[in-house]
Amino acid sequence: MVDYNVLGGKCNRGLSVVDSYKILKGVDVLSHEDAILACTRLLQAYLVVYDDIMDNSQTRRGKPCWFRLPQVGLIAVNDGIILRSHIARILQLHFKRKPYYVDVIDLFNEAESKTALGQLLDLITTDEGEKDLRKYNITKTEGVMDGCDNNGVGTNPSTTS
To answer: pTM for this structure?
Structure first.
């Protein structure tokens, strides 16, 4: 499951994180760079697994989507949870005693939250299923964004009054 969903692609997100970290720290070799890279790849992989299910996609990177494989199906939902749980474990193993541990966790949580909000916007504007876009307006969308900016928790605009 990890090989199918994590490996492949251009690695741009993970590599750019490592390169940025190196530049900011002013060093060539970091003992934790592989951990950051792995977590970035796992984050992308688990979000892609869910995106493919929600968008009812057929292929990803020229292969059938993970959930489309006959032996996988909706087990892919649990596989996404497993991929996500590895991020927390890797960060804990490599950074728990570092003063910036919480900041690293916050960065991954923020990326995940913003991606989920983007996915929500993608889902409500899709042609699949019946949508009532009257439930969504700029005030409600701003409320979601304010919730994320202020406390890291967003609300579903369809349930916001």
So the answer is: 0.65
